[in-house]
Amino acid sequence: MKGRVLISPKKGIADPQGTAVEQALHALGFADVRAVRVGKVIDLELPEGDRVAALAALARMSEQLLANTVVETYSCSILDEGA
Amino acid sequence: MKGRVLISPKKGIADPQGTAVEQALHALGFADVRAVRVGKVIDLELPEGDRVAALAALARMSEQLLANTVVETYSCSILDEGA
Questions:
Q1: Is the Cβ of A55 closer than 8 Å to some Cβ of chain B?
Q2: Which of A49, A63, B39, B45 has a CA that sits 20 to 30 A from residue A77's CA?
């Protein structure tokens, strides 16, 4: 099954990349865009099986490697394929 | 309203960052993780209003700035706040 981890800078943590994107969007004419934050998305394939165990594994991966939990938050999800 | 753009490397395009993350996960004991792909998530705030127009604006931003459409795909969504 497919798993996804979203990683974003925590509120209050400076996000220079987001600021740069926001300024570039303003320069392109998207004047009313605000609060741009740039993070990472990590998609991966896990063996079929228990969804709860898979989510727990994604959370462990996030804590141990994917996210810097001092300055970043993460959220994990399982992407359903078909119905 | 809150908008989100997800940007991922296209299928068949090499993703060295994904490969590095996959190897690191294997080294940490997550042996059965496969097909790791690392992309970007861009969250931003748009003025309240027409959701269809907002989605179209997100798509234009993606085409013009956020995504490199030669090697990346993007998907846009509006995140609902509350009910």
A1: no
A2: B45
